[in-house]
Write a structure and sequence with these properties.
By secondary structure, the protein is of the alpha/beta class. The chain has 20 helices and 23 strands. Helix 6 packs across helix 8 and helix 8 crosses helix 15. The two termini are about 35 Å apart.
């Protein structure tokens, strides 16, 4: 198989698989059509004593892979520091919000212990971890079959730390943001006399907005800073091989990290995807589509870094799922290819045989014998081979619809949703489902990625937290001919979580051409275009200023308004239609959204619901993918 498209499988996570099985396993991996394996270079396993490194196993794996014509993606794992690090340097350990050290432990993905590792805000931790990176990279950088380095596996490790090094970094971050303690006091509603008086914050235990969101922003800042450090350490020692990373789930499903910012640091950027597990939904292909479109919008070179190919947690009956049918494996891989991925890596070849992952997630049986699922793997390999010339040139066509996601709103949603399902995430999913079911491709963009010359449709779900700069960008786009659709409570809070006196807030009133007259909780009925559809969570009604009323609640008050603004238009919806569709899948609601944007879209080719279609532009030719995710044959 041509290595322009990486098609591989996770193989080695010490201490599994058994060493004597490697030669036969790697031969079989090649026979299934794979051109790559991913292996873990684990700090605790390779560096059991200070200044002692045991690379025998990695050496042999590189050799066996090369014998079989397999590329290697090497995942450097720092999340389980060696035992000697904790013993000799206890100051490197993280600290929890109660001031207690975060002790190392084993877990199913880290059977050899040491998880979640040490805090890399500590300069000593970076020196120790950096030396391990240096040793690994310099040993394997010249290997002919080294394809790439994965610098961080799912951003695991200590995500929230209260050690003195992290706290000092937080105070410095606050100083950079606010400049003066009085500016912080104004936003946080405090009366600190000095920066050193600031107390520890714990957003999971408090319900205040401004301070909690600052702590969460800082956590994102420190994760991105650590990612930058990890990647730079690799690049300092290897200037030729690609370096990337992968997240546990994309921003729009979990907000593990800001995908757009993380992708900036990487030569490639990927995500894990397990279609029979949360947060992707149980067998829900729409969530896989949202994941892929998020990654595609965030990164030019994006991968599926872990794709499910086996049963889910057989030892845990509450979440266990059987092995996917071969058709499901084919479907999920082709979805990735149709969205423009440049690599697919399955998790994994052999199953674990202990811990909560035992007998799960694998392509083979515990003895390494092949399952029926391997036939599906081979079919995908053949498809890639047959179409490699097209796939080299393949690009996803430009979209005429963009959904704007605001990272700050995820922080607000975490606070609001402690006792309920995530409202913002499910609003995003709901609108994605609408356009997916309408067979309309959309991009996922952050406010910084809005293009001034965009003349399509911009959807802003759950727009509670806003900023005047975002408003200005949207004004320019609408004025130049774009269409804006915004849900209830637009600009209710500013970027710091401070409430607006009037709604719409944050300068949105002229753009939307209306103002709030009232709001109450509930799932209101809206009458629009001769249909009745249900909203969700709140009913917010408006007084039109320059806008016209195009839909009303069942009591006759304005529910949907359209405001002409320059060459474009802005539509305000006084409830949460994204959430409504997420829970109801009401086809009438989908049709109403289509009517709202009908003048802005044009379908080149269509198929009947529930079939789906995707297109890749490949120079002068196109590849079309038509999916039937039902169990029945469908003629369209």
């Amino acid at each position: 198989m041509d290595s322009d498209f990486l098609y591989g499988v996770q193989y080695y996570r010490p201490p599994r698989p058994p060493r004597n099985d490697w030669p036969n396993d790697l031969k079989n991996i090649k026979k299934q059509g794979f051109n790559a394996v991913k292996i873990w270079a684990v700090w605790r396993w390779i560096n059991p004593k200070p200044d002692r490194y045991n690379f025998e196993e990695l050496d042999e794996l590189f050799d066996e892979a090369e014998k079989n014509g397999l590329n290697v993606v090497c995942n450097i794992i720092l999340e389980n520091a060696p035992a000697w690090v904790f013993k000799d340097h206890p100051d490197t350990m993280g600290v929890d919000s109660n001031g207690k050290s975060i002790m190392p432990q084993a877990r199913s993905a880290f059977l050899i212990g040491g998880y979640p590792g040490i805090c890399f805000d500590n300069p000593l931790s970076r020196r120790l971890g950096g030396e391990f990176i240096r040793q690994v990279v310099r040993r394997y950088r010249d290997r002919e079959n080294l394809y790439a380095w994965d610098a961080w596996n799912e951003f695991q490790g200590i995500r929230s730390c209260y050690c003195k090094y992290t706290w000092r970094s937080f105070i410095d971050w606050l100083k950079d943001k606010y400049g003066d303690i009085e500016n912080l006091n104004k936003v946080w509603c405090r009366n600190y006399a000095d920066w050193e008086e600031i107390e520890a914050l714990n957003p999971t235990a408090q319900d205040t907005f401004s301070d909690s969101m600052d702590w969460m922003r800082f956590e994102q800042h420190r994760v991105l800073a650590e990612l930058r450090w990890r990647i730079n350490e690799i690049r300092k020692n290897d200037g030729k091989n690609p370096v990337g990373c992968h997240t546990g789930a994309p921003t729009t499903l979990l907000f593990n990290i800001n995908d757009w910012e993380a992708a900036k640091e990487s030569d490639f950027y990927g995500s894990s995807m397990y279609y029979d597990m949360p947060p992707w939904g149980i067998g829900e292909y729409r969530e896989i589509g949202l994941s892929l479109d998020t990654l595609r919008s965030a990164a030019k070179n994006f991968w599926i870094s872990e794709l499910q190919c086996g049963p889910v947690y057989p030892m845990n009956s509450s979440v266990s799922k059987p092995a996917p049918e071969p058709e499901k494996i084919i479907n999920s891989a082709l979805r990735g290819i149709s969205h423009g991925v440049k690599a697919i890596l399955y998790w994994q070849w052999r199953p674990e045989i202990t811990g909560m992952e035992a007998y799960g997630f694998s392509l083979t049986n515990p003895d390494g014998s092949l399952t029926e699922r391997c036939k599906a793997i081979k079919r995908i390999a053949e498809f890639i081979d047959e179409n490699i010339d097209l796939l080299r040139k393949a690009k996803v066509p430009e979209s005429s619809i963009a959904m704007m996601v605001n990272p700050d709103t995820f922080f607000l949603d975490r606070i609001l949703s402690k006792r309920e399902p995530w409202k913002y995430v499910n609003s995003i999913k709901g609108f994605y489902h609408i356009f997916n079911d309408l067979r309309l491709q959309i991009d996922i963009v952050t406010p910084e990625k809005l293009k001034a010359d965009f003349k399509g449709v911009i959807i802003v779900p759950f727009p509670l937290l806003f900023d005047v700069e975002i408003t200005k960008n949207l004004e320019n786009i609408v004025n130049n001919g774009g269409t804006l659709i915004m849900e209830a409570m637009p600009g209710l809070f500013d970027k710091n979580g401070i409430g607006s006196i009037k709604v719409p807030g944050q300068g949105l009133k002229p753009l939307l051409g209306c103002e709030r007259r009232g709001i109450e909780p509930g799932s209101p009925t809206i009458k629009v275009y001769g249909e009745e559809v249900k909203g969700h969570l709140y009913k917010e009604w408006y007084k039109p200023l320059t806008a016209e009323v195009i839909g009303k609640f069942d009591d006759g008050v304005p529910a949907i308004l359209k405001n002409s603004y320059g060459d474009g238009e802005a539509i305000t919806i006084g409830t949460f239609l994204g959430l409504s569709y997420y829970y109801s899948r009401d086809p009438k609601l989908r049709d109403v959204v289509l009517r709202l944007i009908a003048s802005k879209i044009k379908k080149e080719i269509d198929v009947d619901f529930p079939l789906e279609i995707r297109k890749l532009s490949c120079g002068k030719e196109n590849l079309y993918f038509i999916f039937n995710s039902t169990s029945k044959s469908i003629t369209s």
